[in-house]
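=== Discrete structure encoding ===
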Amino acid sequence: MTIKRYQPNGKRLSHAVEYNGIVYVTGQVASDRSQDVHGQTQQVLARIDELLAEAGSDKSRILFAQVWLKHAVKDFAQMNAAWDAWVPEDALPARATVESSLAAENILVEIAIQAALSR
């Protein structure tokens, strides 16, 4: 089976990797980190949409999502508001959400997903 890599960043990672009918999207963070967790979540989800489309999939085919929040108790509802507006009600994936120290102080949310390909 062939492994296809999308948007490698040079040394550390590819933003998505396709193998055996599954696309794995690495943890995505907001580019505008001045926004609150709701705004950052919206940015991350838009970026995931782009990566899924490039690989030949979409959010209705997400199998699993992993969400990391800098402040889970404080930000869970705001993150969920963005998530709930984005994810199709008839295609809810399995999901885990945890609190974690993230790579930079101003990153409030990071999301990684695994999705089935559409082809």
Summary: Helices lie at 37-55, 72-86. The beta strands are 4-8, 14-19, 22-28, 62-69, 94-99, 109-116.
